Amino acid sequence: MGSLYDELRGALHAIWQRRWVALAVAWGICLAGWLVVSQMPNNYESRARIFVQLRQIIPTDGTTALNQQKDLDRIRQTLTSAVNLEKVVRGTDLARTVSTDRDVADRVAGLQKAIKLTAQQDNLFEIAVTAPSGKLARQIAQKLIDIFVEANLSDNRDQSSQSLDFMDQQLAERQKQLQDADTKRADFQARFLGSLPGTGSIDDRVSAARTQLAQIQGDLAAAQSALNVVSAQMAGTPANVAGGGGGAVTGPARARLAAIQGQLADARAKGYTDSHPDVIALKAQLGAAQTAAAREPVVSGASAGASNPVYIGLQSMRADKQATVAALIQRKAQIEGDLNLLQAKLAEAPGVAAEQGEIERQYQVLKGQYDTLLAQREQMKIASQAQNVADADKFNVVDPPTQPRGPSSPNRPLLLTGVLIAGLGAGVAAAFALGKLTTTFATAAKLEKASGMTVIGSIGEVVTQAQTAMRRKKLTLFAGGVAALCAAYVGLIGVEFVQRGMGA
Question: What is the pTM of this model?
Answer without folding.
Answer: 0.44
